[in-house]
Design a protein that fits this description.
This protein is an alpha+beta fold and 128 residues long. The chain is built from three helices and six strands, in the order ββαβββαβα. Strands 3, 4, 5 and 6 form a four-stranded mixed beta sheet that branches. The protein has a two-stranded antiparallel sheet with strand order 1-2. It is elongated, with a radius of gyration of 16 Å.
């Protein structure tokens, strides 16, 4: 679950406060656009299986750490069967960091990817 502490940036004309939920939604959208990522997963496992979250609650698979000098983020994901997990995770780190820095103008200090599961091959091709 995202941190409750909002991102606050102060300028000469005033300040801008961004809800942690908005930050998590931006990160989830960037993750959803990455090759090899099936979707976000809830943290932890249920009966040894990862729970695939739908787009409406994808931010549950993201944890934020708002710090004075930037942002730390933990992503919990499910990947496609047959992909190079380390390569997909590295691409995901880069995509999320770029997206948040581009949209929010805030420094991303760390992106941690936690692979919670792999989608079985029979679910990829419709079970045939």
């Amino acid at each position: 679950m995202p941190s409750n502490r909002p991102l606050l940036q102060t300028y000469s004309l005033g300040s801008v406060e961004v809800s942690p939920r908005v930050v998590a939604m931006l990160a989830a959208r960037a993750a959803g656009d990455c090759y090899g990522i099936v979707g976000m997963s809830a943290r932890g496992l249920r009966d040894g299986l990862a729970e695939l979250l739908n787009r409406d609650n994808a931010e549950r698979g993201i944890e934020l750490r708002v710090q004075d000098d930037g942002l730390g983020i933990d992503l919990y994901v499910i990947v496609d069967h047959g992909v190079r997990i380390l390569e997909v995770a590295h691409n995901l780190m880069s995509a999320v960091a770029y997206s948040l820095e581009h949209h929010l103008g805030i420094r991303v200090l760390q992106v941690n990817v936690n692979v919670q599961g792999i989608r079985p091959p029979e679910e990829q091709d419709g079970g045939s």
